[in-house]
Amino acid sequence: MANRNRKVGTKDQNVWKVPAEPSGPATSGGGMKGKPQKPSTVTSNKAGEENAAIGSKIPVAKATAASMIKKSQEKFNQVQRQHAEKAQKYATEYVSSDEDEETAGDSSDAATKSILGEVLKNYNGADVDVSKTQEYLQNLLESRNAVCLICIETVKRADKIWSCHSCYTFFHLMCIQRWANDSMSMKRMNHEQQEGYYNNRGEYIPKPALSVHWDCPKCRKEYQPQDIPRHYECFCRKEQNPSAHPWLIPHSCGELCEKKLTPECGHSCRLLCHPGPCPPCPQTISVSCRCRSSALKTIRCSQKSWMCAKKCNRKLSCGIHECGAQCHEPGHCPPCKSRSKQHCLCGARSKEVNCHESRWQCGTVCNKPYACKLHNCERNCHDGPCGDCPLGLVRSCPCGKTETRAASCAERIGTCGDTCQKVLGCGQHRCAERCHQGDCGSCLVLIAKVCRCGATTKEVACHREALCDSKCKKVRSCGKHPCNRKCCDGQCPECDKVCGKMLPCGKHKCSSLCHHGPCYPCNQKSAVKCRCGGTSIEVQCGREKRANAPKCKLPCRIHSKCHHQNPHACHQGECPPCTQECGQPNDTTNCDHPCTARCHAAVKVVTKDKNFKPVGPWDVPRETVEIKALPHPPCAVKMPVTCIGGHETTDCPCSNSKPSSCGRPCGRLLRCGVHQCPLVCHKVAHRASTTQDSRCEACTASCVIARPTGCVHPCQRACHVPPCSPCQVAIKANCYCGLTQVFYKCHEFYPPDLVGNEKGQLEEALKQRRASVMSCGQKCIKNLPCGHRCTATCHPGRCPNPDQCTKKVKIGCRCGHRKVDVNCGTVKVTRTLDCDAQCELLEAQKRAELEEREKEERARQEQENRKELEEYERKFNRRKHRERKRQEVQQEEGGRSWMYLLPIAAVLIAIVVYFLLVQ
């Protein structure tokens, strides 16, 4: 926890000792088939740089904004896939650091696989639906890291949640309610700020109608206001406020789902209440094949239909050939694909085409002469006659005011000389030119027009649009930035600036374009380290303080507080208590046995002040936590002790090894010779005696008939004629695997003595019945000698077939280059592989590299020795100083020596004067 503020580097890929899996590229397709993806830390740094660049105040053009949107969307898809892969990997490999969870985690993997296999083994539908359902079930059974994307908090078993109907993501109920209300409030405020406007024709355009809805924070599915969740419901929505049961999936009611399956087939889901989509319909139906010619066959409802091996012999549309296709629906035969040579519609060309394409057009102009022999047909390839010449019919002038029939189709019809008067493109004015060939021009009439924003009126040509220079001051849909478009018609464009708001994580800013409503959750990753700093994991940004520390396999560095060595892995919080036996002499019972209890030399003890007097209800006594040694508990070593009645000898703890009553009936034969003493085991003079003692109770005429073998419950009736009634005492016992307790009645397990010729068969049947009673019917929890889980049902004795384990293990050659996955049962026969030529080549390369490094090291050492020798010669063979300079220095030193003698002489004189004065 202390290392959270340190700079987080690239995550070590070998911390979990698993092979790195390739991740997908930033495309909408599938996974990457090339280089492995870079670590998410580098991605997050790059994303942060881009966000900082986008968040600047430099104006962005529309083309730049479009490319920015595309890049941000691709980056979001890439990071989203990374998060899904990391979460799946973490849910599969995560192991808690606590001892209790560590012990339970070893058996939870096999149990989870068994549960998923039992749930999905009978489903045979679309692989996508089955895998999606399995993913959600596996995440619930194995992972504890479901996160609410709104508050970035962990979704716990006891929290009230709501799951989206489209993406099935979990959110806290209060968070999604607040999200929906805030989204709709922002849309209402934005609608109130909008106003109506006048268009360029002067018509008043009112503001659009209010459409209020809220979206899922992850998939953006639209929901209506009445869809806001008001109650905490289970996944099948049958029960409100479902109770948290430890043996059920969290947030489920434990009843049948019974949702209508999709596509609609009339059946409902038969799984227990579960998250995520329902799997394909597993029901069986009896249907015939697609062509209805085979007998009924039982298939899964999700498959809908099946195909037989027969060929269709129906006539095709051509009436000549038969279908010949495999079994299909009646009336859905494919078109005939038999080829033949056919002429086009006009008969000019011919080619080989499919039988169902016998009428085809060549695409060329007909060009056949009309009856006038002057003009040719201009239609494309067609069948039948070309008709009359269109120039020989009644024709009009270009403006359409004069119609006449020409004497010949070769005669040309000219203009009439009148005004054209055709309606122009504006729809209000007419053409003022004379009758002319071709289209009319644009309308040039000057009219007063209102500009697009309705603020100015001026005269412009009718075909032109009136525009002014005033800028729109309305706020865009984002609610923050003005429009600033010249002569805006009221339909302001979407805002193209970057949002830049701080996300809930408090570290990154929103990189999307300026938008309305809350921002998307942060999609970055942060690293969380263990206590020793040797292991780190990546979590959702903003959850560093609330995320569980990673499981570290390195040893703990804190010394043990007791006299034992307490080795354990790195952990958070205090070290786990020592679980070894004490082993010291027990001074509590003063016996010769060493203490076998759990180590109690350093135990946390919480004490409260007994003399504390509270001032008010807010005042609580102070608790003192101490680590101290507790006294030894009473000795629990078993010692043989015979009861006071001499019936049985049991092993009692050494601290309580005194004879006492065993609680069984005395059983000594009374003087009557028929009945026995009914008293509970009591003190007698002679324990080995079987006859009545002076302290035994007299005969009370109780039943003396012997009970069946194994039954220890006496008959409660008075003395009677045999047989006795069956024993109805209920007995509780553990099953063979010790996982479940079974209940049975004594007479069912221990029936009366078997007699007759079929005694052997009856005993065998009784033995089988007892085995079925004592077996819980679940999967055996024992491990085979190889360490893998037994696959048999709860059974007595050793696990069957321990040498036929089918689990996959990995073996390799001596050098570690070759590795092969084989069955666990064959590992005992073949433990290693033989090295091949590739291994020998690698060994030779390593030896060559080692010799090369040794050669370089020798050369470097020789060069360093030469440098040292040169330095030595340079240092000790230099020239000496001149004698004259040395004498000058000595003279200077002799001249200054008197300055140091003055203080010494003064001290000596003072001492002499002192002694003289004293005398």
Please describe the structure with a list of short key phrases separated by commas or semicolons.
919 residues; alpha+beta; two-stranded antiparallel sheet; 26 strands; 11% strand; disordered N terminus
Explain the overall architecture:
With 919 residues, the protein is an alpha+beta fold. The radius of gyration is 49 Å and the shape is extended. The protein contains 10 helices and 26 strands. The relative contact order is 0.05. α3 runs antiparallel to α4. A two-stranded antiparallel ribbon has the order 1-2. The chain has a two-stranded antiparallel ribbon with strand order 3-4. The chain has a two-stranded antiparallel ribbon with strand order 5-6.
Please specify the SSE layout and strand pairing:
Elements: H1 40-54, H2 62-93, H3 99-120, H4 127-142, E1 147-148, E2 153-154, E3 161-163, E4 170-172, H5 173-193, E5 197-198, E6 204-205, E7 214-215, E8 222-223, E9 284-287, E10 297-300, E11 339-343, E12 350-354, E13 395-396, E14 403-404, E15 446-450, E16 457-461, E17 525-529, E18 536-540, E19 603-608, E20 623-628, E21 638-642, E22 649-653, E23 730-734, E24 741-745, H6 746-749, H7 759-774, E25 808-812, E26 819-823, H8 837-876, H9 883-896, H10 898-918
